[in-house]
Write a structure and sequence with these properties.
alpha+beta; 11 helices; L-amino peptidase D-ALA esterase/amidase; 16 strands; seven-stranded mixed beta sheet; 30% helix; 2 domains; Ubiquitin-like (UB roll); acyltransferase; ArgJ_beta_C; single chain
């Protein structure tokens, strides 16, 4: 048995972890743009990355290390993705780290992570100058969370404490960024999860891959996948506590929290919808339909307009090419049934009730396929004028 308790604060509350964020001149107006995570003990590290074939230089640099390596330092910059920069992008990371010296605090297999505009060389001079001002004994998770933001409307973090049956306990927390270019198969997102649990590498990777399917791989803002997407777990083992089942469950909670914060941000989004597809022929077919709904621009704009247009829902399911039959399909907005096995239930009163559901900040759109037992829930948001405004001048 174990108990999982949400707690307030940032990853700097976890034993042995230090972090901060500064302004290094990458962003204008003195905004924070460079941060770090440091551990007083080398961490077991596991990560999953974007499925975009054009992976950014920081990801390639990470993958040059041997599997199951340990690290004590992650350097994170915003405003520049260091993507589509070729071999020079990796060389720049090596050059950058070769110029950092923190005295008695030696860097072990340092990791670089970047987010921002694709296709620009990394501004090494600014980053080195900024990083040299770091105090690796700082504990300022709030600054770190703001330094990694790009188009995010707000910083994203969460914290949990896990109490085990033997009386030991460990903490786990995350800091993340992500608001746009969010599509199933990760997203334009960075997520750093720190824990003082003593987690074996194999267990980190197993839990990451399993939990990603129902969290980061189940959200969509705009149907795009970027080049830098990273979910990383750092385990320094300082608590000497561990339970595989408890770790897998609390990691799921952390990843779900971060995923929901990202889709709710959504570069101007006001609505979050859970697209719950049930009774499909298989779980795989349910996933296909649910993700099609979360990605559909027509569905997203209907959410923005608070229009319970069930025709767009049904059309998207049919276009996903899963097995379906309109005489078995049931569509509901929360508990308001608008289409029931070939019968249109959309009279004036029902439309008004469904419209009231769409006025809420969060709701479910439930699609009962009626052909099996497969199910999957994907999460999406509305798409409005603000999204176009943000992305029309993203490089400025």
């Amino acid at each position: 048995m174990f108990t999982i308790l949400p707690i307030k604060g940032y990853i700097d509350q976890i034993d042995g972890f230090y972090c901060d964020g500064i302004h290094a001149g990458l962003k204008s107006n003195s905004k924070l743009d460079l941060g770090f995570i440091y551990s007083d003990k080398p961490c077991t590290v596991g990560a999953i990355f974007t499925e975009n074939r054009f992976q950014a230089a920081p990801l390639k640099h990470f993958l040059q290390y041997e599997e199951n390596f340990k690290t004590n330092f992650v350097l994170i910059n915003s405003k520049n993705a260091n993507a589509l920069t070729g071999r020079k992008g990796i060389e720049n990371i090596n050059t950058l780290f070769s110029q950092l010296d923190f005295g008695s605090l030696k860097l072990v297999n340092p990791i670089m992570s970047s987010t921002g505009v694709i296709g620009n060389p990394l501004p090494i001079e600014k980053i080195v100058a900024g990083a040299k001002s770091f105090d690796l004994t700082s504990k300022n998770g709030e600054n770190l969370s703001r330094a990694i933001m790009t188009t995010d409307a707000y910083a994203k973090s969460c914290m949990y404490e896990v109490k085990l049956e033997d009386g030991t306990s460990f903490k786990i927390g995350a800091v993340a960024k992500g608001a746009g270019m969010i599509n199933p198969n990760l997203a334009t997102m960075l997520c750093f999860i720190c824990t003082d649990a003593a987690v074996p590498y194999a267990d980190i990777m197993e839990a990451l891959k399993t939990n990603s399917e129902t969290t980061f791989n189940a959200i969509s803002v705009d149907g795009d996948t970027s080049t830098n997407d990273t979910v990383m777990v750092l385990s320094n083992g300082n608590s000497n506590a561990y339970n595989k089942e408890a770790f897998a469950e609390v990691l799921r909670l952390v990843m779900f929290d971060m995923a929901m914060l990202m889709v709710a941000d959504g570069e101007g989004a006001k609505k979050v919808a859970a697209f719950e597809v049930i009774n499909a022929v298989s779980n795989e077919q349910a996933m296909i339909a649910a993700k099609a709904l979360s990605n559909s621009l027509l569905v997203k704009t209907a959410l923005f307009g608070e229009d319970p247009n069930f025709g767009r829902i049904a059309s998207t399911i049919g276009a996903s090419r899963i097995d379906c039959d309109d005489e078995k399909l049931v569509i509901s907005y929360n508990d308001v049934v608008v289409f029931n096995k070939g019968e249109i239930c959309f009279d004036a009163a029902t439309e008004a009730r469904a419209g009231d559901v769409l006025k809420k900040d969060k709701y479910k759109i439930i699609c009962d396929i009626g052909l099996g037992e497969g199910r999957f829930t994907a999460y999406g948001c509305d798409l409005g004028y603000k999204y176009v405004e943000i992305n029309a001048d993203y490089r400025s």
